[in-house]
Amino acid sequence: MDWGMKNRLSQLIKSNGRCMFLPIDHGYFQGPTSKLERPGETIKPIIDYADALFCTRGVLRACINHENSKPIILRVSGGSSMVGKDLANEVLTTSIEEAIRLNASGVGISVFIGSDYEKETLLNLAKLVDEAERYGIPVMAVTAVGRELEKRDARYLALCCRIAAELGARVVKTYWCENFDKVTNGCPVPVVMAGGPKTNSDLEVFEFVHDGMQKGAIGVNLGRNIWQNEHPVAMIRALRAIIHENATANQANDLFHTLKNEKKK
Question: How many structural domains comprise the chain?
Answer without folding.
Answer: 1
